[in-house]
Amino acid sequence: MQWYLVAALLTVLTSSQGILTTLSQSNGKYKYDYATIPFLAELFKFSVSSFFLCKECQSSSPPRMTKEWRSVRLYLVPSVIYLIHNNVQFATLTYVDPSTYQIMGNLKIVTTGILFRFVLKRKLSNLQWMAIILLAIGTTTSQVKGCADTPCDSLFSAPLQGYMLGIFSAYFSALAGVYTEYLMKKNNDSLYWQNVQLYMFGVIFNMGWLIYGDFKGGFELGPWWQRLFNGYSITTWMVVFNLGSTGLLVSWLMKYSDNIVKVYSTSMAMLLTMVLSIYLFSVKATIQLCLGIMICIISLQMYFMPVHMLVELPQTLPVTSK
């Protein structure tokens, strides 16, 4: 499967996630424990990867699997990074409003490019750097509201701690993606074997988070496994399936493509979500959204299109008269 087909499918699934999550609410509230969604999504990814790994093991050419603990333990790191990121994310939202946090989140586009260059040693051309910066500008432009909606100075009214935590949040988000790509490409192990290791730790950490929630709440609602599916509907299951499928596609991109493709896919998904929200939830379209979409499309062209198609170079040097 070509990377651009996976990226397009990832864009569709990612854009559907926010819409499905909104549709799973009842009167603006969740009837289910939303902490169970990541756990079930990780369990789904682990189960699918285990199934395909078993199929590979039964084939005539068994897959390559590195089973030494010193290799397996490396897959614990992304789970730790995501755990730190989630806590920093919640801490950031105590200092800044959601709109400011959403805009600051676009820093991860640039930080991904920086880590992509210095951690993975992948060189980017000047034109590609300009495209990445344009993508960050485009997504930010699409999210900026007019002065009639919110105070124009609200973006700069948060305390310094909020901006520092926002920067750390963007950094950890980019670090998790870049480190996962490093793991996926560090050897020729089977993708499904790598996924099994990655999602095994994801299941463990998310289960630990549910247990922590029980202790924090004093077990007033009972142990988490007894209320795991409470309040679930068909839409809720679609949220789990969508989130799990998105993770599987991301791991494929990390193995056979790179983080920049994922960044573009998720950014385009965000814009697609905003466009669909206009029709599904009667959200008002803004000039900022239109400008942001145009800037992001230009960025997409600049990054992926061959240089000779972007710049018309003369075939021969002009003859100068003496």
Automatic annotation (TrEMBL):
Compartments reported by the entry: Golgi apparatus membrane; Membrane
Residues passing through the membrane, by range: 34-54, 74-95, 101-120, 127-144, 164-184, 196-212, 232-254, 261-280, 286-305
InterPro entries, per database record: EmrE-like (IPR037185), Nuc_sug_transpt (IPR007271)
Keyword Signal included in the entry's annotation: yes
Signal peptide: 1-18
Pfam families, alphabetized: Nuc_sug_transp
Keywords: Golgi apparatus, Membrane, Signal, Transmembrane, Transmembrane helix
Primary location: Golgi
GO CC terms of this entry: Golgi membrane
Source taxon at top rank: Eukaryota
Membrane topology listed for this record: Multi-pass membrane protein
Function of the molecule: Sugar transporter involved in the transport of CMP-sialic acid from the cytoplasm into the Golgi. May transport important nucleotide sugars such as CMP-Kdo (2-keto-3-deoxy-D-manno-octulosonic acid) in physiological conditions.
Family from the record: Belongs to the nucleotide-sugar transporter family. CMP-Sialate:CMP antiporter (TC 2.A.7.12) subfamily.
Name under which the protein is recorded: CMP-sialic acid transporter 1
Origin species: Urochloa decumbens
Taxonomic lineage of the native organism: Eukaryota, Viridiplantae, Streptophyta, Embryophyta, Tracheophyta
